[in-house]
User: What shape does this take?
Amino acid sequence: MALISATNLKKVYGSGETAVTALNNVSLQVEPGEFVAIMGPSGCGKSTLMHLLGGLDRPTSGSVMIDGHNLTDLSDVKLTELRRRRVGFIFQFFNLIPVLNALENAALPITLDGVRGAEAKERAADWLRKVGLDDRLDHRPDQLSGGQQQRVAVARALVADPALILADEPTGNLDTKASEEIAGLLRQVANDWGRAVVIVTHDPRIAAYADRIIFLKDGAIIDQTILEPRGSQNGQNAEMVAGKLHAFGD
Assistant: This one.
């Protein structure tokens, strides 16, 4: 069974003559452990789709199912609970708390969910080690590089053991080397740790790490591309993705 099943999603902002349709009858599925990239021109509906898939916003019509739960049927309280426990979020600008160290930042979601301090820190430390930050547990965000801060954000997204990771331009604030490292880490999240990963990105090099790319334009899916396995094909994948983006008008 698909982890995510979105059916005929439509999102309209405003009403009457000023109404803007951000998404128009979008349907897609994402399987457990699948890595999917969403691409398209600015204003095509990428972030809107991400917000609907994560329950951060509600569609004007259509439905989103996550792990058998219909988000449109959930109360705000139940929706918040599902987001906290089944979905991990990663953002472009990290969104770390400046006064907390890496361990405290990574532990924050489960601390807020009632997990006791010692257990929360133990689970956070385990994920920070997995993402390569075992020697940075007591460092605050201003003592970490951008790539390291994003690794803390990845650990924070995983600490509650969610089934789904949603990442909105996760490499948009990083240099080339750190971007490639984070893309490889997200590939590992899908391959080794079995989470579904959905990212919004404008960068063909990052999208080339995915299993499948969904291209949006004017609020609709215009193409879906299955990629060859990573490795030696990655550069060719990136070139192919860049060509498609150009053809689609990005």
